Amino acid sequence: MPYSHPTPAALLALAVAALALAVVPASGEVSGPVGYDPDGLRLRLENVQSVDVSRACGSISHPWAYRGAAGNKMVMRSYGQHHADSTYARALAALLVEDARVDTATEVPSTQVDCSPAAAKPMYLLEFAKGKQSTHVVLWFELGVALFFDAEEPLGMVPLAARADSIWAQLASLLQDDPLLRKPRPESPQGGALTRLRGDYVQVDELPDATQKVTPKFPFAAQELGIEGIVYLQVKVGVDGTVQDAFVIKGHRLLRDEALKAVWQWRFDPAKRHGEPVAMWVSVPVHFAISD
Questions:
Q1: Is residue 39 situated within a structural domain?
Q2: Distance between CA atoms of residues 236 and 247, nearest Å
Q3: Does the pTM exceed 0.85?
Q4: Domain containing 104: what range?
């Protein structure tokens, strides 16, 4: 398939820019780091049946996270899809994870990639199929990492290191119409240089403070079933105090859409650093109680 206009990759809602990924404090119900399942990752990639390989573009951050209808604008896109059989898929999977050191997926920083083919960067999306199970991989050659996830859960990150050339050549053998793969592979940082590029963190003097909250509607289906509890969200508060991004990290499926719908409408006094507003992620618990 030749390269053409990008279309949204199904179920891959992404952030625009991640800064500081917090964890839910105190309660002990959610903690970090997350996105680290090396044994599960290797098991998922054993005996895969096929793989689809595409260019990735748009916003690249936390691709497993559920953001609801209001977050549909924040998607990673893919285009130029090529399909390969089990022989190719298993060889590529082995290159990615065999003897690899698996790290936490949340250590990968966010980035924005132009979706115009003329301005494309060598970033690729893989989708391995095994029965009804799909495992997604973002290959970020300029950073030298592979980010693994399923539709809603992070699975890990692997530094490409010495295996990068072999993976580059494997992609080039399938994507023969991709001009980027006809060029030399980009040099990626190693060792300490790679460590300094991990994650998107910011130090602040003042945390964001919610100034306008919208109470979520209690879903009728949840009430009928007697389901209540807390939906934990990660919310990116922009320099103007609006919600720039929000996604679920824990919460019942029947409650999370209304939690997201409400929080997207919240307003904050933004975080401050040296008196100047800065964008920052904060943890927000949204409570649903039938007695309320």
A1: no
A2: 9
A3: no
A4: 7-21+46-197
pLDDT of residue 190: 60
Burial per residue of 199-230, b for 16 or more beta-carbon CB atoms within 10 angstroms, e otherwise: bbeeebeeebeeeeeeebebbeebeeeebbbb
Residue 42 burial class via C-beta count within 10 angstroms: exposed 0-12, middle 13-18, buried 19 and up: middle
CB 37 within 8 A of CB 212: no
- CA distance to 128, 165, 271, 287, per residue, from 268 (Å): 40, 46, 9, 19
Where residue 242 sits, what CATH number does that domain have? 3.30.2420.10
Which of 131, 133, 48 lies closest to 95 in space, CA to CA?
48
Q: How many structural domains are present in the chain? A: 2
Q: Report the distance separating Cα 115 and Cα 122, nearest Å.
A: 12
Mean pLDDT by 10 residues, the chain (292 residues): 38 29 38 66 95 91 80 81 98 94 80 85 96 95 91 87 94 95 84 50 87 95 94 92 89 94 96 92 92 68
CB burial of residue 1 (10 Å; 0-12, 13-18, 19+): exposed
Is there a cis peptide before residue 33, judged by omega within 30 degrees of 0? yes
Helices (H), the chain: 38-44, 86-97, 164-174, 191-197, 220-225, 253-263
Whether residue 15 lies inside any domain: the answer is: yes
Task: Tell me, yes or no, whether 111 and 243 share the same domain.
Answer: no
The answer to the question of residue 202 being in a domain is: no
DSSP E strands, 49-142: 50-60, 75-84, 111-113, 123-130, 133-140
